[in-house]
Write a structure and sequence with these properties.
By secondary structure, this protein is mainly alpha-helical. It has a domain at 44-72. The protein is built from 4 helices and no strands. It has helices spanning 8-17, 22-35, 46-51, 58-67. Helix 1 runs antiparallel to helix 2 (22-35). The chain is flat and about 45 Å long. The termini are close together.
């Protein structure tokens, strides 16, 4: 499985084609665009403050979880 970036317009069209009302699809595309625009890439001290351990990036978390077998691998044909 491979990540393929999708534009906001393409995302909206895809979910509209799946039955999501157009106004909801465009709102979701806008929201996801804001979430994924890079402003959330930094690691903050919140984890350290709340959990008492050093924070780590999502990429590190996902890599470690995948290596531990947290998600079964399946082939997409």
């Amino acid at each position: 499985m491979q990540f393929v970036p999708v534009s906001r317009a393409d995302f909206a069209a895809l979910v509209t084609g799946s039955g999501v009302p157009p106004e909801d699809a465009h709102a979701l595309a806008h929201l996801f665009g804001k979430v994924l625009d890079g402003r959330n890439t930094g690691i903050s001290n919140g984890v350290r403050d709340v959990l008492g351990r050093e924070p780590r990036s999502f990429a590190d978390f996902a890599r470690d979880a995948a290596a531990s077998g947290a998600w079964p691998q399946r082939r997409v044909s």
